[in-house]
């Protein structure tokens, strides 16, 4: 499953309208797009414009229905795989992981990429 970066970032939003950005991302092969909004507030107008543009792109056959169906299938498969029996970890489970040798090794590896 391929998910876009935030389409409301300045690098994208300064060059493309929300709908054009969403259509371009989906047409390029993304299965889902992120529209996170500035700060903690999602911009519902941007999301509505993107959704409307995507609907029109499918109606106008700029994005094929087969591509949409394949993306929906990948989304469904990811949800079935990762969310079917997911439960938030208990405090005891968190304590057994956070600060463990494995956790520290992963943290050190991530820090080496910075």
Write up what this structure looks like:
This protein is mainly alpha-helical and 114 residues long. It has one domain (3-86). It is built from six helices and two strands, in the order βααβαααα. It has a two-stranded parallel ribbon. The longest helix is centred in the middle third of the chain and has 19 residues, at 65-83. It starts with a strand and ends with a helix. The relative contact order is 0.11. The model has no long low-confidence stretch (mean pLDDT 87).
Look at the helices and sheets and give the structural class: mainly alpha
Q: Quote the average pLDDT.
A: 87
Overall tally of domains: 1
Distance between the termini: 26 Å
Total beta strand runs: 2
Shape: elongated
Summarize the helices and strands and which ones pair or pack.
Layout: E1 3-6, H1 10-13, H2 18-27, E2 32-34, H3 44-59, H4 65-83, H5 91-97, H6 101-112
Parallel strand pairs: 1-2
What are the key terms here?
two-stranded parallel ribbon; mainly alpha; 114 residues
Concise overview:
With 114 residues, the protein is mainly α. It is 60% helix and 6% strand. The protein has one domain.
